[in-house]
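Posting for a labmate who doesn't have an account.
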Amino acid sequence: VGGANLTGSSAGAESGADDRHTRWCENLAVGAGEQFADLQPASERVGLTERLDEERRAVLAQAADLSPEEFHARPLAATKLTVGRLVKHLAFAEDRWFQYKLLGLELPEPWRAINDTEAHEWSFYSADDDRAEDIVSLYAASCDRSRTATAMCPSMDTLAAHPSFDKKPVNLRWLLAHMIDETARHSGHADLLRDALGRPPVR
């Protein structure tokens, strides 16, 4: 898988606790009827993956009931953000961190065709030309790829194939925590946009 260090160094220490929640060890999504992550997770891995899926689900929920016009609207004069731009950017973030950084694979389309120096900004502004349902599908697919990538890692100490910040590779633990932070931050932005559109909060 492109050079990622998938051997880890503490898989044995995690395995006992993770066995109690096998479905979460495999990093499957929280079911549609389950509103919150486990309040007493069996392990660090379970807690982080459940929490990330909770934030992913919140992003999809905030986009689900918007009209195409609302999805692309800019209701706040102080920012150029739209819900569509946020969701497409989060799809890029999932693929950049899990496919490229963690596994060492080429970025999937549509990111592969974009120059590296432009990809971050493009992931926002190109959303204006896309249909809402296509962006939502793109995000859902990127999250599925990320879950598969996570499930390939035997340990939270698994190192990414590529270094970050011109320093050294992050491990899976750092990566999951970072994606919780990024997803929750942009979900909060979407919540503000929904409020400005007169839409009720969702989770």
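Reply:
Got it, the structure tokens are right above this. The mean pLDDT is 87.
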